[in-house]
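REQUEST FORM: STRUCTURE PREDICTION
Request ID: SP-0412
Submitted by: Lab K.M.
Chain count: 1
Length (residues): 324
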Amino acid sequence: MEVGGPRRLGEHRSWPRSFADRLTTPLPGLRAYAKLARGGAFRPGPDGLRGIPDLPYEPAPLPDVAPGTACVTWAGHASWVVRTGGLTVLTDPVWSRRIIATPARMTPVGVRWEELPPVDAVVISHNHYDHLDAPTLRRLPRHTPLFVPAGLARWCRRRGFTRVTELDWWESAELGGVRFDFVPAHHWSKRTLIDTCRSLWGGWILTDTQSAEPRKTYFAGDTGYGHWFAEIGRRHPGIDLALLPIGAYEPRWWLGDVHTDPEEAVQACLDVGARRMAPMHWATFVLSAEPVTEPLHRVRAAWARAGLAREDLWDLPIGASRSW
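STATUS: Completed
RESULT:
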């Protein structure tokens, strides 16, 4: 559905009890869990883990950002430091060494917390533990503006945050010189045994609204491949940079509906019409069975097969930055 102008910041809203009707495909049932347990293929074998020392990690001081430009810095996994429109925005910030039910990080965080500039806002894609990390959020002043999916504000307010804006798909809000648009994703939500799909999931488009040539950054969050990418591109033309997930995709029968593989991520970039792509959601946590360095090799090959300019694939090491 088309919606009107920006929502009011910090608005208290009512939502349906469940967003299960937004699922692209039904969630796995008991048979799928039993198959996964029998196969045991939900982590790489020894050969797949040998590449850990080769994972790209090159932390560097955050560069200065000139007025009218934008800059992204990859902190690891789906955590980015996005500086645009005069604001510093964190995406799905996870600065913890480990998350629940997952081995410790393969690579350190690319940006030390103490080296961050003041954080003007945070965007959250959904409530899974590798994207919504309570210990990291506790490091923030409680007046930090949080932009979250529908149904997630209560969780944030219970933890003392006072400026929480929750949005439905295709809604937006504005802070300073940046417009925050919440867009669909092919995923789901769950944090406890009793809250499956009680909050929404999605991605964010951050638009510098004040520059002569507004910079537009698409943060896809966590998503499988599907029809939403073309619709996002139709409604939000002129995306400069798409931050897209390329890891946690094997076994495919288990994860194909909710995580893009590298080839699908490249196609998603084409679908949304983004000029550039920066891969994410790999090289940080062991969440699935593919060899740890495979996503990078596959995304580079897929980008070349698509005939796209090599300089527009921003395959950054963790800790690196790029401006435009």
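NOTES: The chain has a mean pLDDT of 96.
Reviewed by: T.R.
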